[in-house]
Design brief:
The structure is a homodimer.
Chain A lengths: L2 H11 L7 E5 L6 E3 H14 L10 H10 L4 H4 L7 H19 L4 H16 L3 H20 L3 H6 L3 H7 L3 H4 L1 H16 L7
Antiparallel strand pairs in A: 1-2
Helix pairs in contact in A: 2-3, 2-7, 3-6, 3-7, 6-7, 7-11
């Protein structure tokens, strides 16, 4: 296979993330969104909301990170954030997926994309911190817009959301501040359980 | 409304492109893809295939362009490339859509995104040329992978494809060269009509 054939092969393989369904519903509540739609949304939010990042960061690098961050779910599936059993095996399943999927690319790009994904998972750079913040607030905004469907169907408690969002302010204090009253409203509406 | 409220309002409005169906099918042929999935695919291809561009170009600028290029379809709908009637009113419908949708953003960002879209439509910069090339080859690759479903269902002729792809080599000669044998194979398979 030529280099370009390998790249096109990868580009067709990742088409599969269009079929990986998430727990979050579209804003209109009509159906769950998928990983490709979610990644497009994060990439777009990244350049439109960059002014709210706590730190200077590289926008292109962050967009690349969010574009690839869910590709491992082609093999590993979407693990619901509030499912403790599934989360036990998550890391192992995802590492195996990363090995197979990223290595469809030519070696230099396989390594580049793997490093991007590791950086996202580790969350230790300004780029990864902002990417993680976007990855947390996008479903929160959609859950709110869709009437809390995903929260209600799983009986989600505020404490679970706060635990999951411990690091969200690290990428952007302002975006996390924006979300707080949304959580409050959804408690009042009975979409999120307070205790 | 605060600046951030305006931005979030826009981010929720553009969620609608997840429901704008295209004529192209997913690689596995199971269903048509939508505009959000298509835009994610182009953005990802942009950074993975940048080495094939004819000219030096700004990758971030091009990714921003492909992320926003179909947002006008929220109001204007997806106009099938090979539908001459619909294409007559396309420009007018899209300009009206751009005015409404982009102006949901704060003025500086509304202007920025409008300029990005105009640049894409005009196709006169290295960034717009490469973005347009990606926008043409992505459905071609998916049509091929899915067994030519979209070509067959519309009875598409080679001459129509070549006319539509007149400018595709301007962004990348190599990517267009890669597509030529694919077209040939699909003629042989009876998916594309030769004359």
């Amino acid at each position: 296979m030529t280099r370009l054939e390998q790249q096109i092969n990868f580009i067709l393989e990742i088409d599969k993330i269009k079929k990986i369904s998430r727990q979050t519903y579209l804003a209109d509540g009509s159906r769950p969104e998928n990983d490709a739609e979610h990644s497009w949304h994060l990439a777009t939010m990244c350049f439109l909301l960059k002014e709210y990042a706590n730190e200077e960061f590289d926008v292109l690098h962050t967009i690349e990170m969010v574009l690839i961050h869910d590709m491992i779910e082609i093999d590993a599936g979407d693990t619901y954030a509030y499912d403790p059993e599934a989360n036990k095996s998550k890391r192992e399943r995802e590492l195996k997926a990363a090995d197979r999927i990223f290595n469809l690319l030519p070696p230099d790009q396989a390594e580049y994309v793997r490093r991007l994904w590791d950086e996202f998972e580790e969350g230790d750079t300004p780029e990864a911190r902002f990417a993680n913040t976007l990855d947390k607030i996008q479903p929160l905004l959609l859950n709110d817009a869709s009437g809390g469907t995903a929260w209600k169907s799983h009986g989600v408690h505020l404490a679970q959301i706060l635990k999951r969002n411990e690091k969200t302010p690290k990428g952007s204090e302002s975006l996390w501040e924006y979300c707080k009253p949304i959580l409050k409203e959804n408690i009042e509406k009975g979409n999120i359980i307070e205790n």
